[in-house]
Amino acid sequence: MIIETGILILGIVLLILITSDVLITTLSLGVGGPITSRFSAGVWYLALRIHGKYPSHKMLSLVGWLLLIFVALLWYLLAWFAWTVVFSSFAGAIIEASTYSPASFLQRFAYTGNTISTLGRGDYAPQGFPWELATTIASTNGFVLVTLTFAYLLPLIQAQTQMRKSALYIHTIGITPQEIVLRAWNGKDFGQLSQHFISLAPMLTEQGENRLTYPMLHYLHCIERSRSLCVSIAVMDEAMTILKYGLSDSVRPDKSALGSARRASTAFLSTLESAFIKPGKKEPPLPSLESLRERGIPTVSDREFWEATKHLYRRRKLLLTLVENDGWSWEDVTIEESFIESL
Fold first, then answer.
1. Residue 309 sits in which domain range?
2. Is it the case that residue 311 has pLDDT exceeding 80?
3. Which of 141, 169, 252, 302 is 20 to 30 A from 197 via CA?
């Protein structure tokens, strides 16, 4: 009796853990459930290590989607196992409908699968009120699990599409921080660049909220650099650093529009820092102002630029971690000199 009760308690504890993990991941904001978050982070860390030795963005993209599918399967399989433990705790819990003899473990396993998938009980039946009630709860649990999984996955795919669109929008403005500045310069000011900043503010805010709502977005990798939101945000943030601290006061763009986009970028980075990543030990090199000077854009000296941006060390470390955690490098942000050809 003690052993049977212990097995029953084990099954119930497993069910509580699994159900909590599903509910936290699909309904809460900020982080995935304890099982999902640890499993996903571990697999992604391993994938990044492999990518570091044998670079393959296709592999990272595949791992991200397989991880998404496997997490959904993991929820279902763990629930199946936990309910099997519950129904196996007492010998007479499940019986064969024709012979009334206790079902074997494999038969209970099959019975549990039929129950939580709402396919029916098959040739087996619960024995007595407690197990009939448990069967009803298991069937309801399976239905809710499947419903929550699909309700979570479908909007997540839509959010991933929005993420790619946002990255492409930034990419069309410029593929490097310097190109964003150079393309906007018309000889006396930065023209319509402020309008882009006004559009970017709500876009970045939405992306930050999507990362909170759908933590698994963090592991959906885009093969093309132009569609990587992490790279695009790093490019835009560095461009805003140049515009705010690297130019002479007389030519700096509208402070209101720039400040709005800058705060939205800060909010995005703060969201990721609170839930996914932490600043690394390295700070990326400051963007060069030389190409701007060559095009006649008034800039501050390199020394003044460095002094003015010293306080941004934590922000820029976070940008580097963001890019590297998405399987890219800081060289993908700067792309030395290649942007000049596209002007």
1. 156-342
2. yes
3. 302
